[in-house]
Each structure stands twice: as C-alpha cells, then as structure tokens.
Amino acid sequence: MSTTWVPGADATGYGADNLPYGVFSRAGAPPRVGVRVGDLVLDLAAALDDPVFSAPSLNPFLARGSTAWRSTRAKVSGMLASAEGRPAAEPHLIPLAEVEIRAPFEVADYVDFYCSIDHAANAGRIFRPDSAELPRNWRHHPVGYHGRSGTVVPSGTHVVRPTGQRAPEDGGAPGYGPSERLDFEAEVGFVVGTSTSLGRTVPVGDFAEHVFGVVLVNDWSARDLQAWETTPLGPFLGKSFATSVSPWVVPLDALGAARIAGRPQDPEPLPYLRRVADWGLDLALTVELNGEVVSRPPYASMYWTPDQMLTHLTSNGASLRTGDLYASGTVSGPERGQRGSLLELSWAGADPLRLADGSERAFLADGDTVTVAATARGMGGGTISLGEVTGTVRPAL
Ligand code: MN
C-alpha cells in the first residue's frame, strides 16, 4: 500500500502501514500523545493542532469513537506517506531517543480471558489429570475473570516477586512467603474506546466500533498462590500483583491483512456469540527469557476471537468504559515450542526448560527478564511490529 518518506522507517516494522499510538514526554514537558514512525514519534497535538492529543493518555481520543479514529489515521497517513504532507509533519517528529515512553492509556476495567484451547487443555492435563481436559463450559463461552486495573503497569516496570499463601504440598498446611512458582503469560490485549450504557450487549458485529486497537500483555502469575486460592471463586492474588502492557497501541485498522477466519468452533456457539466477520488475527508472538527465544506462540491458533470476547463480556448488560482492557489469556499453540507460559513449557516443573547458558528454569528466578514481542502482516505486504512488553523480576520485599 503506502510507504513513508521517513528514511528507513518502512523497514523497522513501524512504517506507513502501522502508525501505532502511544504517550511520550520530553524532558521537563508534560506527557502527550504521539504516533510512532520508524524511530521517531510524531507529536500529534502539534502536527494536527488538536488539543485532544495534549492529554497524558489516549483516553480522550479513544472516547471520540471510530469515525474520529479513522479520520485521524487518514490524516496522519497523509502526512507521513505523501510528499504534500511532509512539511506539516516534519517539524513535529522527535527521535525516540529524546523522549520517555509512558503508559499509553489509563486502564478503566481489566478482564482476562482464557481463549487458547491448547493452553486450556494443557492446564487441564497438568492440574486435573483425572478429569476432562476442558471444563464443561469452555466450548460454550469464552471463560474469563475480572482482574485488577490498578496494577496494570507499563512495559519496563520491575515486577516484585509476590508474597502470599502457597499451596500446601501433600494436603498439609499452606505456607506463607515469596512465591516459588512465578510465571509469565504471553497474551494479546484489546483496548476499548467507546463506552456503552448499562443493560446493553455489544453485538458481535459491533466489535470494531468499540475496540480501538491491540497491545501485548504479560499476565504475571504466581502459580502456587493461584493453585491454593482459585477454588471456588477464581484467580485473585496470584494474578493481581502486576500485569504488564506494551507501549504502542496498534489500531485495528492496521491489522486488516492479519485478519483470518478464526479457528473452527464445535459446537457452534449460541446465536449471540456467532461470528459475523473474520476477527481471528494472525499475530506471531515471541517470548524471550533473558534474551533467548523460548517460545513462539501463534495467535492464529486461538479458539475464541476478540469480537466474541467483547460480546460475552457485555452479554449480561455490563457497560464498557473508555480505557477498558481485555486480554486473550495465555497464547499457546499445539507444539511444545509454542507454549505461552513456563507452566506449560516446564510442565509445572516436571520437565524444566534448559537455557542456552546451561541453567534450567521450572519457574522464574529473581533477575529474570521476560519480553513478549509480536509481528503481523501489514497492509502493504511487509511486516508490522506490535512492539514488545518487558519486565524484570525483583526479589520479594
Ligand atoms: Mn492470563
């Protein structure tokens, strides 16, 4: 499709067919909204002369709705991909090296789903070896839980090893102390722009009217806390200590060439959950542990698609707010090298992961750095980057 006049940008994954949004600040100046192109950020408030982008988060822009998202993308694209637009944009391009990248949006509510059939089946085999791999409800709706938005943190934030009640071994009493089974979960997150009123269900076909774009998520998980607390009300403190989010929100409009039909579903979902458009996404994730690729989870293998997640999330009439974030759940493919958590990669510690430096990991060690990155096919036929979300484990306080 289009290419940009910004030198080298199209080869970085941040060319004219990506144009993700984020929040940046220059020394001494308040944060504001920008669009990334190559290794530069376009100061939108200045380039478009629109104060909505002077806000320290994307939220006011998200609240404007899908018509405004599309017209803004067209304007920015016109500036960065045409010679006529160049004079208006060029003075407002700032090298990334001169700015600090912030959290892109203020998270309203946070929900985490469980939409990978391979991940759910692996978890079933590990935790409930004597039962069916999938819970009875799993193929009938996307399973999820409400998380803690206040501890959603930007990429780069250190993650302090959580403390809590650890599952007892062999039916004894629980211990209390730093988690001994700290894990990551490589996920994709969806950012809600347009709110709804109480009582209304968002139809599957309205997904792109409400969801602005996509981020990468690491849902850090303390498996020993989780195993002890989860019955009967679901995840609680084993998840809520930190959830990391990538800095650049890639608009759905940049992912047109990554859209796929989505995995076949059996049984056919109930009518309110039936797909009416292709919102499977062919995103190629990588998980690095201390710089070494340990997994390549394929988002294309997910069972429930994000349009179905949004509809199910609102099917009881729960309203949406600008800035709501919902994540897919751990992305795992059918192959061993495609598993999106250490729980699966080490089979709960039974088969530790061997790293290139000779060390082994059943779960994360203090000092470990986990980085989840992703790419997708761009509208121009090249590859676009969804950036990365990274975090380093610090010892318990
Ligand atoms: Mn999760």
Task: Describe it.
The chain is α+β, with helices and mostly antiparallel strands and 397 residues long. The chain folds into 2 domains: 9-102, SH3 type barrels (Roll); 110-394, Fumarylacetoacetase-like, C-terminal domain (Fumarylacetoacetate hydrolase, domain 2, Alpha-Beta Complex), CATH 3.90.850. Helices cover 16% and strands 28% of the residues. The protein is built from 9 helices and 26 strands. A hairpin with a 2-residue loop joins β20 and β21 (292-295). The protein is globular. The N and C termini lie far apart (51 Å). Manganese (II) ion binds next to loops.
| CATH homologous superfamily designation of the largest domain | Fumarylacetoacetase-like, C-terminal domain
Ligands in the structure? manganese (II) ion
How would you sum up the global shape? globular
CATH top level of the largest domain?
Answer: Alpha Beta
